Predict the structure.
Amino acid sequence: MTETFTADEMMSVAAARSLTNGSACFVGIGLPSTAANLARRTHAPELVLIYESGTLGAKPDRLPLSIGDGALADTADSVVSVPEIFNYWLQPGRIDFGFLGGAQIDKFGNINSTIIGGDYAAPKVRLPGAGGAPEIAASCREVLVVMRQSTRSFVESVDFISSVGYGTGKGDRERLGLRGRGPVKVITDLGIMEPDPETCELTLTHLSPGADVEQVRAATGWDLQVVADPTVQQAPSETELRVLRELKATIEGDQA
Amino acid sequence: MTETFTADEMMSVAAARSLTNGSACFVGIGLPSTAANLARRTHAPELVLIYESGTLGAKPDRLPLSIGDGALADTADSVVSVPEIFNYWLQPGRIDFGFLGGAQIDKFGNINSTIIGGDYAAPKVRLPGAGGAPEIAASCREVLVVMRQSTRSFVESVDFISSVGYGTGKGDRERLGLRGRGPVKVITDLGIMEPDPETCELTLTHLSPGADVEQVRAATGWDLQVVADPTVQQAPSETELRVLRELKATIEGDQA
Amino acid sequence: MARILTLSEAIAELVADGDAIALEGFTHLIPVAAGHEIIRQGKRDLTLCRMTPDIVYDQLIGAGCARKLVFSWGGNPGVGSLHRFRDAVQHSWPRPLEIEEHSHAGMANRYAAGASGLPFAILRGYTGTDLPAQTDSIKTVTCPFTGEVLAAVPALNPDVGVVHAQQADREGNVQMWGITGVQKETVLASKRSLVTVEEIVDELTPRPGAVVLPTWAVTAVAEVPGGAHPSYAQGYSERDNAHYQRWDAISRDRAEFESWLSREGLADRSAR
Amino acid sequence: MARILTLSEAIAELVADGDAIALEGFTHLIPVAAGHEIIRQGKRDLTLCRMTPDIVYDQLIGAGCARKLVFSWGGNPGVGSLHRFRDAVQHSWPRPLEIEEHSHAGMANRYAAGASGLPFAILRGYTGTDLPAQTDSIKTVTCPFTGEVLAAVPALNPDVGVVHAQQADREGNVQMWGITGVQKETVLASKRSLVTVEEIVDELTPRPGAVVLPTWAVTAVAEVPGGAHPSYAQGYSERDNAHYQRWDAISRDRAEFESWLSREGLADRSAR
């Protein structure tokens, strides 16, 4: 029996599947936390969750509502200071996966979470800002981006570079001295984009079940490259869906 | 009744008396630790003892045998890492008093604890080295030096500057950017020397009971300046002697 | 030795118009009551420093206390935008707000440099982003051993650092546990410091993961039970998530915000 | 994930001739048994790093394992000199010993930079002393904000970092408490790491003041009860002060030292 599922659920499941067991993952709140906790409860029981609030190896029994949730500290192997989490744990490249999102992304995976429109001093919309993203993007071994896809968010050129993907193309990360591999996957509600090995341009490699290439192109603000025969992602399994929904249920009461 | 006491006991008592109640003191093992613990048990019950092993506010019930003694960690307000003790506590100038000793001292309070004779690559005698002294000498608000006086140790010129007193004279600390006041007292078994306000040259200001100026001059390797009428230090009180001897007794068993 | 004061005495004595102040607490232990007292006392022209300005900074900005914000992420965690912050940046309401924007790693290292008595800190940070072009306090230094170029940020040494903790003893020694963020650095970096606590106890019992600030490193302690609400104090209270949700509606509209200020008794002495 | 090995397996696998190794532990928790195993296995040409080389380093030097010593204070704490260290520096016995000498603050910051993935650290240090003239790894940098000149020291990233802790669990998570010195930094700065522990337990119980190293940050764990003797492991053993006293006599004389090596079974494979 295959249950019906939403595009957002597919996105969470795809993000969770990208995390390998035993790896260490730098998690932000929202979709990344959902994905990481889903992975830990399905195929990756030994995934190490690291939150920028300083919790190393958190094993929350419910979805945390903020990166400083008490459930994280209570269940962590160790809680360290914020300077330590950035200096001793993130900066040296010890962390396998970092999750990022943002308001805009361009075809080289550069992300904007700072301003939209106008200029920096007088923006049309002032967003929260970069937070931990510049160094997560630089230092995690691999970056996973999770964002809903639309022409508003997938743009030819971002209004502000809050965190660097591949800069202006292949070789830029090396020139800049960034040591992590950069955004190896951009996971959306419509599919998955990965950097082209030759150009580092984000290229559609996987479609969500039910989505087609034209639909993804129409939701992308640049002329999206597509691999010859994009794989259709496997639909969420019954277990994945059940665990995902259980996790989500743990926060709905609080957020009502 | 005045008991008899040794010159070393007078030196410990004089060092203890230099510590004001409520101040914070960076303590090394040996005479400084004896003096600081004596002060805490007599006139300065709220003296904060800080050991470079990371113990803040240690209140040992016996004389610790090493700077990493378990009695220090057990009784401290907080135990922090060694990088933190140097970076967050010593370096910013939070600590009122630092104690130093060494193999040689010159008339400007520069101290050698590195080598004697020969040159650095092939010394006649290799000493343990500077340890925490360079930064204690630089950053504590005031430095107290405690050393037995002899022409071997009080020399015209030290063989190696392990920690800086007043450099080559008045104004040098400011030129070097050292922020603490430097060695405000050199306490020996024969008396106390203090920097001359005009020249920063160490000048005999206090005599130990029973010592005279000629004796101190004879034990000094430079032409020692002496204030007009050196004060004779008050002999150790009965309480000071009793507490000092009790403290010493706590370690004798172990060291036998 | 820290003095034990009431919150209103402490704010009156420690915070002056024009000061740079830092209220820190990373989601947990946010000193919200102290922020409200600053609004109540009508402090003005403050430079507000905080890694994650959240609703208490939204309130300070909306109430017109701030001249400048030094920060790395300004949002309502788990909810969305800070509308008073946006209104100040986008429309200069109630007054223009200068901003000095960093990343989390940069801000954390600025506090650590401040606590260490160093003029600056180095990190692998900001590379390739548009932040250095907008923020004067991001520069570079070259490693004298390897020739590598690293980011440099200046020490942050606020005039006043304010944090909330679970406990202090009667001598003013402070203990906090759970997520302790950048609070030790904030207190040690600041010229003066205030710790609000859930309770003052006879003796601090050592706890796993606790950070202890000795009394001689703290200027003042004030007992303010619930002083972190709507954030939480582990062992004392839970995060009030609904309050964060409600703030979104209250703060979207200027009039709604001003009536909130009045309702909370925070508008009296604020002279906008 | 850390692997649980025997001490001899761990040293054989992790330490190669010519490696830079750091055995840390600030008076407390000194990994002495690991040092003896290194002597027993006849490792050679090692660069030995340690803030306070004490009797275990005196033994390694006397046994001819070391080519170079990186340190800040080389004495027998509470007793006096290290005679094998002195003999090596003063008379090149049993072989010449290159030295790289720092202050404690410099060494602590070198490990911290190493743990942080930075090429160097800055500190207010060494100013006016004769150390910078003798030590190539002390340079200066200028603050790009204030123009102040500060000391710079390169990161220390040993090939192998060895520390002793009270406990590990069966997954290789490590917990140590009491004075924890620079041990976390040593493990994080090193390419490979070995933690010897008093005991392996089913579960680590959180303790006040404990430092926890997660298993994925450690290469190997070996159960070595009493592995810190003659230093101590808080909660397990007391410091053996008499042993430090006795070392003075044993180490003063080359023949006496060599007979000690034999007595302890440490001379067999050492080919001086």
User: Anything to note?
Assistant: The helical segments of chain B are 7-17, 31-41, 70-75, 82-90, 133-139, 172-176, 213-218, 238-255.
